[in-house]
Structure to design on (229 residues):
């Protein structure tokens, strides 16, 4: 059974940094692209970033490019999202998801809540 | 970025009755391989999104056959043939052809 478990979400002040983690199990982690998606309170879904199987290719949505960095450690079956210079509008539930070869997301974590507030 | 527009944004439904949600893309989602890169997700209250439909019309594993997807290029529709109480939640379409992938605003389906 595929499992994705996010962690690291918490309350931070504007301008601070935070690293989210996603622990994967139930599949060969190094065989899949992985993605971060977020959902602001009461809002829709926003695709943030994806990383390829070996970590050599990373793509971002424009709103986080230069502030957020996606990475992975295949030896630890883990995905990360380093978030710098956080703003109030970064407040959201952050989900990690496993990419299928057909580009859809069949497996999602339960999400971790990041709150940016002074 | 590709803009995905869903309608309606709120859909009151009656159990046993059909329901339909539209999703329009600002650019064609038809790949030269013949697939439309349009997916549908349902987010039930308090849960993560779950995949319903991929490539516009293919039901994901375990999805009841009362759910169906149709459409091509820029216009897509999700239909529920007979709504059940368990179908309430937010329905999102997502285009996965162009980077960045983008979602529709979501349609709230409630009894």
């Amino acid at each position: 059974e595929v499992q994705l478990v996010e962690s690291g979400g918490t309350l931070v002040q504007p301008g601070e940094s935070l690293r989210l983690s996603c622990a994967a199990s139930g599949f060969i982690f190094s065989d899949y692209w992985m993605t971060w998606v977020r959902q602001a309170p009461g809002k829709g879904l926003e695709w943030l970033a994806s990383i390829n199987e070996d970590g050599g290719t990373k793509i971002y949505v424009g709103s986080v490019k230069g502030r957020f960095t996606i990475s992975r450690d295949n030896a630890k079956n883990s995905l990360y999202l380093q978030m710098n210079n956080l703003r109030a509008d970064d407040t959201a539930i952050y989900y990690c998801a496993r990419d299928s070869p057909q580009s859809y997301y069949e497996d999602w974590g339960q999400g971790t809540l990041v709150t940016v507030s002074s | 970025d590709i803009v995905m527009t869903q309608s309606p944004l709120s859909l009151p439904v009656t159990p046993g009755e059909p329901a339909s949600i539209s999703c329009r893309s600002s650019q064609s989602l038809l790949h030269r391989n013949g697939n439309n890169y349009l997916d549908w997700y349902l987010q039930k209250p308090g849960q993560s999104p779950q995949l319903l439909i991929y490539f516009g019309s293919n039901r994901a594993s375990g999805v009841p056959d009362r759910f169906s997807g149709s459409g091509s290029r820029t216009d897509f529709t999700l239909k529920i043939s007979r709504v059940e109480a368990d179908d309430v939640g937010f329905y999102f379409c997502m285009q996965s052809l162009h980077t960045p992938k983008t979602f529709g605003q979501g349609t709230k389906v409630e009894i």
Notes: DSSP finds no helices and eleven strands in chain A. Chain A has a mean pLDDT of 96.
